[in-house]
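On clarity, I found the account of how folds are encoded harder to follow than it need be. Since the whole study asks how a given chain folds, the encoding of that fold should be made plain. For illustration, here is how one protein appears when written out as sequence plus structure tokens:
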Amino acid sequence: MYNQMILLAESGSTKTDWRLLGEKVYSFETIGLNPYFVNSDTVEKELLQHLPHETTFTVREVHFYGTGITDPVKGGLIAQGIRQALGYPVPVYTYSDVVAAARALFGDSEGLACILGTGSNTCYWNGKEIAFQVPPLGFWLGDEGSGGHLGKSLILGYLHREMPESLRNKFEAAYGCKDRLEILDHAYRRERPNQYFAGFCPFLLENRHEPWCRELIRNSFTLFFEKYLLKYPQLKNVETGCVGSIAWYFGAELREVAADYGLQIGKLIRKPVDELTLYHQP
């Protein structure tokens, strides 16, 4: 007798968290599967390498939440790779990462859902769908409040010699001396510059007590509020929650900036997949 299971995935820029839901819950991890950067064959390969090798279950449906699921074509690319890996037809439902945030935070209730991870995003969730959204503009034109934006602001301060000397010495001890050409290469020639710049956030976290770092963090979150959250008509009528590593680790600073606007941040979730597991658990 085969167990009929649900395959669930929540994919960010760096990694994808997977769950097989049934009588038992199996967990595994693959690389981030953003359809802007991977194809169906890559999805298939990653799944085949990590999917539990048991013959006592079949997957009856798949729910894939991910960065880069911006239209049916991108979702179809992911769905095709999953079906190739499973080797049999199965319904595959694909959703954007902001739907993952909304369902993880609010389930079937309404609220303002925010993502503050490598990138940033927001939406008003009416309990069933995204009912209003200030559009995200990605790393180069937006992503205020994100790890990418924080890291980019840090590097700009370093290159412009605005970083205090004591911090500059600590930075170079951790990362080595950085010159303009190296940074420009990562920014404009290599893939996924947002991940590269977000990689400097541990330095900000470690030195969050330093006035210069504290101001940088608060400025990034202030821009996040001004560019996005303050434009939602529902802001003062529903709960606001955030998912992502930046929201989780810099929650104190995020709540301080919210208080400056007379607002409160409710639930903070580091990894949406845990709440999504409860949402989809059969």
Remarks:
- The radius of gyration is 20 Å.
